[in-house]
């Protein structure tokens, strides 16, 4: 009799479980649009050229050693990451009001930020958008925060529920933390306009709500690193406090290297250094210090002019391919005369399209067409190619007619 015999089987993760089901399917036409990972036109995972080059440089550098990094990670990586998200000429950086710690990709950065806030911030409630990336709720709840939601998406318009968002944040208790997707909101692909961001910023600052940005898609949404960082920079520009979690999974294709950063922008340099000292106490018992390889790749690319430039081109090419897939899918549904207004496919931004297909329709498409996606009808545009658009079109058409 095992001491663990009482343990019940846990369900598969709702997102990663889609791939588990996909791998079991033996159909030659099967298509995985579940997990958010970039694929080429040929349906293959992509390692960026600049990443290959950076790795070559690292391998050839005999002075490189494998000692532990500091608790806060690779110093160069942290500086360059802050510059990337806040802007090269950010006054907050010049005034030493930013502390950045290397973390385990976006997820780890959110978790460290959540733990820090749960221990040191006076208001332990975090508001997350409805809907949001499924892991947010669990990350912040386990960090010790109380998780509430604010209205974000309006199924009727397949757009932003701006009025609901303003009402919900307007009635949040003063000081509450608000999780914001910096760009390319997951799963809806719906972002506020610049003007709406400005209204959100004003409302939040007037109520003392603390912004915590999740930036998992910088450069991947519009193809421009600066455009995709605009929301974060608006909040930093007013001098107030901001947290931001960055991930290099998508924009450098470093998924499995688990490389990301948490930055906390504070009001002055003195507070900032005390915040950093406490972040170290959060990290030390969690994983001691972060891994060296992925951060070295990122730092190598970010500090070299030529590599950086080449990266922006490769990044733009990925973003453009996704945008092309949106257009192709939209055109194909139109050409087929599939009932419904599918313009949201080309209006939404980033890796995902929130199709509006319901659970039953998704199950039908998986069963009859071997197409895999999350049950909320979210499809990864990055998993689609010109070759597979017709198959997806047929499936959607059959599901809605
Ligand atoms: N936030 C959002 C909104 C995401 O979509 C993702 C990746 N799916 C992440 C954070 C974190 O990803 P990672 O930990 O791989 O960087």
TrEMBL record:
Gene3D superfamilies cross-referenced by the UniProt entry: Aspartate Aminotransferase, domain 1, Type I PLP-dependent aspartate aminotransferase-like (Major domain)
Classification lineage: Eukaryota, Viridiplantae, Streptophyta, Embryophyta, Tracheophyta
Source organism (scientific name): Solanum pennellii
InterPro entries: Aminotransferase_I/II_large, Asp_trans, Catalase, NHTrfase_class1_PyrdxlP-BS, PyrdxlP-dep_Trfase, PyrdxlP-dep_Trfase_major, PyrdxlP-dep_Trfase_small
GO MF term (any one): transaminase activity
Family designation: Belongs to the class-I pyridoxal-phosphate-dependent aminotransferase family.
Miscellaneous comment text of the record: In eukaryotes there are cytoplasmic, mitochondrial and chloroplastic isozymes.
Cofactor annotation: pyridoxal 5'-phosphate
Recorded catalytic activity of this chain's protein: L-aspartate + 2-oxoglutarate = oxaloacetate + L-glutamate
Subunit structure as annotated in this protein's UniProt entry: Homodimer.
Domain Aminotransferase class I/classII large: 30-396
Enzyme class name: transferase
EC number annotated for this UniProt entry: 2.6.1.1
PANTHER family from the UniProt entry: ASPARTATE AMINOTRANSFERASE (PTHR11879), ASPARTATE AMINOTRANSFERASE 3, CHLOROPLASTIC (PTHR11879:SF57)
NCBIfam families with a match to the protein in the record: PRK09257.1
Name the UniProt record assigns to this protein: Aspartate aminotransferase
CDD domains attached to this UniProt entry: AAT_like
Keyword Zinc among UniProt keywords: no
UniProt keyword annotations, A-Z: Aminotransferase, Pyridoxal phosphate, Transferase
């Amino acid at each position: 009799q095992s001491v663990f015999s009482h343990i019940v089987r846990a369900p598969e993760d709702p997102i990663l479980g889609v791939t588990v089901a996909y791998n079991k399917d033996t159909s030659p036409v099967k298509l995985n649009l579940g997990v958010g990972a970039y694929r080429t036109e040929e349906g293959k995972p992509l390692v960026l050229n600049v990443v290959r080059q950076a790795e070559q440089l690292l391998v050839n550098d005999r002075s490189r050693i494998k000692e532990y990094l500091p608790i806060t990670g690779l110093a160069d990586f942290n500086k360059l990451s802050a510059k990337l998200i806040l802007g090269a000429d950010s006054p907050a950086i010049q005034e030493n009001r930013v502390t950045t710690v290397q973390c385990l990709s976006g997820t780890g950065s959110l978790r460290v930020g959540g733990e820090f806030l749960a221990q040191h911030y006076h208001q332990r409630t975090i508001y997350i958008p409805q809907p949001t990336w499924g892991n947010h709720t669990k990350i912040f709840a386990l960090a010790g925060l109380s998780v509430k939601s604010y209205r974000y998406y309006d199924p009727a318009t397949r757009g932003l529920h701006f009025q609901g968002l303003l009402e919900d944040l307007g009635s949040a208790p003063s000081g509450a933390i608000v999780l914001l997707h910096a760009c390319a909101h997951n799963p809806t692909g719906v972002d506020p306009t610049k003007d709406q961001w400005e209204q959100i910023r004003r409302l939040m600052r007037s109520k003392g709500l603390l912004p915590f940005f999740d930036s998992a898609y910088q450069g991947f949404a519009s193809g421009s690193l600066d455009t995709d960082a605009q929301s974060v920079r608006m909040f930093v520009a007013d001098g107030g406090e901001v947290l931001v979690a960055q991930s290099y999974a998508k924009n450098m294709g470093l998924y499995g290297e688990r490389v990301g950063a948490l930055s906390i922008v504070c009001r002055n340099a003195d507070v900032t250094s005390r915040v950093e000292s406490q972040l170290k106490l959060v990290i030390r018992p969690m994983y001691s210090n972060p891994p060296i390889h992925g951060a070295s790749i990122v730092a190598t690319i970010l500090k070299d002019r030529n590599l950086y430039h080449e990266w922006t081109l490769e990044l733009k090419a990925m973003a453009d391919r996704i945008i092309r897939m949106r257009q192709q899918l939209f055109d194909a549904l139109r050409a087929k005369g599939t009932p419904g207004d599918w313009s949201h496919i080309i209006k939404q931004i980033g890796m995902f399209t929130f199709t509006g297909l319901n659970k039953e329709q998704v199950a039908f498409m998986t069963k009859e067409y071997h197409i895999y996606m999350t049950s909320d009808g979210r499809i990864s545009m990055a998993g689609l190619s010109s070759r597979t658009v017709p198959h997806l079109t047929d499936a959607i058409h059959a599901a809605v007619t």
